[in-house]
């Protein structure tokens, strides 16, 4: 049967997939349905036809999955911000864990992955300290999924109260400036004061910071545990994709006698890290910041056997060259922090291929999933790769 855009079908959702949609196999066709749940029977309308698969939207839930709940947010059905609020929180965690395992096996079939825990976020709502609302004709909100249609909101349940309470004031300040449309970043600064600025064509975000400070504390704690649990003390710690030093400073504090080198390409973030190092009276030997592209840095920098390398790249992952350079350095381990299991597994595959060519035996020694982004399909990973020769 040929399926076309606009067709209405009755389908059953088999499972959730990376990216957050539910998957249905309907007469040999693969259909992805956002905001569906495993086991749902749905009446859907096909919205997009690709070469080998389709997208559809829910018209009616004929038989709801046992893992469904009524989403607490009143804007949920339209807003493109969260994609998993309709799933019970235990299901969100279970599915994230399962997708991590599946993704790893897809890229590295037959390779060992240890049993791992998924750590729930200390707060499953009101955890975000940074949001990017939009303004269209003086209405403020977020875009509907995959569109530029504004969904006007008064509250966002995953945003910290302190930031959300500034929403009316920020709206007023923006409208007083006679800005009828635009994109903004609303955030809590280091003193937890709400602030905003406009995002422009050329001036984009002031840079990365972890959005869930409650779970970020756990990430740091566990990273320190991973770093310290190794027979040899590192001679240097190289923090690649360091941002403003969220991970590098706690590492420097924990390994007082070890040089920390932070590599970050965003100038504003690199400058923030430098300022903080100065404030902490850390000498360049103790703490050095390179404002550089990691792949260029890796071309020139000579890694030593006893260096502890930490990578925390953006969602798109690292450049292939970085994984190859890491393998070539023949270091005994590295720590990979990731907010995207797909690029994490893809990068590890590159590393394994290269390392195996060199006769090395890499394996994921430790893995922890941290639910940094509850109510969404996103998840954070902390992993340690050990390399035996
Ligand atoms: C996921 S964030 C991690 C930041 C930091 N580790 C933290 O916990 O806050 C990734 C960082 O990598 C930086 N970045 C992205 N691509 C880069 C590249 N090619 N070279 C260097 N830094 C890069 C981004 O600016 C961002 O600060």
Question: Which molecules other than protein and nucleic acid are bound?
Answer: S-adenosylmethionine
Gyration radius from CA atoms, angstroms: 23 Å
Q: What's the helix-strand series?
A: EEEEEEHEEEEEHHEEHEHEHEHEHEHEE
Q: CATH superfamily membership of the largest domain, which one?
A: Vaccinia Virus protein VP39
What CATH calls the topology of the largest domain is: Rossmann fold
Please tell me what the overall shape is: globular
Question: Key terms for this structure?
Answer:
389 residues, OB fold (Dihydrolipoamide Acetyltransferase, E2P), binds S-adenosylmethionine, 20 strands, alpha/beta, 6-stranded mixed β-sheet, 8-stranded mixed β-sheet
Structure description:
It is a single chain. The chain has 3 domains: 1-67, OB fold (Dihydrolipoamide Acetyltransferase, E2P) (Beta Barrel); 92-122 and 212-388, Rossmann fold, CATH 3.40.50.150; 130-199, no CATH class. The strands form 3 sheets. It has an 8-stranded mixed beta sheet, sandwiched between helices. Strands 1-5-6-4-3-2 form a 6-stranded mixed beta sheet, with no helix packed on it. The termini are far apart. The chain is globular and about 60 Å long. It has helices at residues 89-107, 161-164, 167-176, 213-228, 248-254, 267-279, 294-300, 320-329, 341-357; strands spanning 8-12, 15-16, 22-26, 29-33, 41-49, 53-63, 117-119, 130-131, 134-136, 139-143, 150-152, 182-188, 194-199, 236-240, 259-264, 287-291, 307-311, 333-338, 361-370, 380-388. The chain contains 9 helices and 20 strands. Helix 1 (89-107) runs parallel beside helix 9. Helices cover 26% and strands 29% of the residues. A hairpin with a 6-residue loop joins strand 10 (139-143) and strand 11 (150-152). With 389 residues, the protein is α/β, with parallel strands linked by helices. Bound molecules: S-adenosylmethionine.
């Amino acid at each position: 049967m040929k399926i076309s855009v606009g067709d209405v079908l009755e389908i059953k959702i088999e499972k959730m997939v990376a990216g957050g949609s539910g998957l249905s196999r309907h007469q040999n066709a693969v259909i992805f349905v956002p905001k569906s749940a495993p086991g749902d029977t749905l009446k859907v309308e096909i919205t997009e036809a690709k070469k080998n698969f389709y997208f559809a939207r829910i018209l009616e839930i004929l038989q709801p999955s046992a893992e469904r709940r009524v989403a607490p947010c009143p804007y949920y059905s339209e807003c493109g911000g969260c994609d998993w609020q309709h799933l019970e929180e235990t299901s969100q965690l279970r599915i994230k864990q399962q997708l991590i395992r599946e993704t790893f096996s897809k890229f590295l079939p037959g390779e060992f992955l240890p049993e791992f825990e998924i750590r729930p976020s200390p707060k499953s709502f009101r955890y975000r300290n940074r949001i990017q609302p939009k303004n269209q004709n003086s209405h403020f909100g977020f875009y509907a999924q995959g569109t530029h249609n504004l969904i006007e909101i008064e509250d966002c349940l995953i945003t910290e109260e302190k930031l959300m309470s500034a929403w009316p004031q920020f709206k007023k300040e923006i409208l007083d400036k006679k800005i009828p449309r635009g994109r903004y970043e609303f955030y809590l600064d280091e003193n937890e004061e709400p602030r905003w600025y406009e995002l422009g064509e050329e001036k984009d975000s002031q840079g990365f910071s972890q959005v869930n400070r409650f779970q970020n504390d756990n990430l740091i704690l566990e990273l320190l545990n991973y770093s310290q649990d190794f027979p040899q003390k590192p001679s240097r710690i190289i923090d690649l994709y360091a941002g403003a030093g969220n991970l590098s400073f706690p590492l420097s504090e924990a390994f007082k006698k070890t040089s920390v080198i932070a590599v970050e390409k965003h100038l504003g973030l690199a400058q923030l890290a430098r300022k903080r190092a100065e404030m902490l009276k850390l000498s360049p030997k103790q703490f050095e910041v390179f404002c550089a592209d990691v792949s260029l840095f890796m071309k020139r920098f000579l890694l030593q056997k006893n260096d502890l390398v930490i990578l925390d790249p953006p969602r798109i992952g690292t450049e292939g060259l970085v994984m190859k350079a890491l393998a070539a350095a023949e270091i005994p381990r590295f720590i990979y922090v990731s907010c995207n299991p797909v690029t994490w597994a893809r990068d590890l595959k590159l590393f394994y291929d290269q390392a195996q060519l060199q006769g090395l035996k890499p394996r994921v020694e430790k893995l922890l999933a941290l639910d940094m982004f509850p109510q969404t399909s996103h998840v954070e990973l902390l992993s340690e790769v050990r390399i035996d020769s």
